[in-house]
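User: Please predict the structure of the protein below. I'd like the answer in structure-token form so I can feed it into my own downstream comparison script.

Assistant: Understood. Taking the following sequence of 123 residues as input:
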Amino acid sequence: MFDIVTLGETMIRLTPPDFALLETTTALQVHVGGSESNVAVGLARLGASVAWLSRLTRHPFNDQIVNLLRGQGVNVEHVIWTDADRVGLYFLEEGTPPRSSRVIYDRANSAMAHIMPADLPAD
């Protein structure tokens, strides 16, 4: 059915613009980020038939994730939707020398953290 299936948590990345610090910024840019979805998009761009599996909370940010992946040719039909839990987030402070970049994860109790083997399609 698919050449490749990836399974994982894609999160919303919030980044202060212009190398600002989280402690001083008044704005955040919204991005989509996740290793498994990045791999899925790359493989789809190379012509593979790819599906991405995850468990997501019904939330506009997660609609953004699914729409972005679908738009890149990744099959998202098997995403598990829930009204429970939360959206996984991470924050990226982009560094500029001599300050390095910093990533802060906020993904405890996200929807994907509560996925169970029985949630996954048998095939």
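That's the full token string. The first strand starts at residue 4 and ends at 7.
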